[in-house]
Amino acid sequence: MSWSGLAKFVIGFTVGILLLVGAGAATGYYFLTKLTTPPAKPVFPEERPKAKPIAKGKNSTSKKLTSTSLLKPSSTASSEQLEPGAYKARVSWRQGLSLRSEPSTEASRVGGIPYNQRVIVLKESDDKKWQQIRVEEGTEEGWVKSGNLEKIDSQAEAEQTQ
Hints:
Radius of gyration: 30 Å
Oligomer: single chain
Largest sheet: 5 strands, antiparallel
Shape: rod-shaped
């Protein structure tokens, strides 16, 4: 075997090893970046842009709309529609709550409830560790851990809205 044949073999072997190492490093980098990228941030109702009321003119006598008047129900019928034993509450946990399909941490997550969101507590689990709730402005229902909701006093709420 000549020196040129040996040199070709060594160079070819080295290039082959470098290609394998480079391809392995590129594949590892690709999967590492895909696995460490955090998921998209959920958008809670209070983070969505609110529609601004249209002004009819500067001499308009229409009632000025505020954020509380936009969210306030037009009648008190909603408080009469509560099921027996149900009551209104507000999320007191600053990070918000996970809404689960069943009263268990292993149950699938069906949504999220942001901090200060109003809900209706429908019932409690037998062991009193979970509460079944419904979002006040929607139809979302699920289970949350007990102790993360603050009961809303309906008389104090009526005085605040007046």
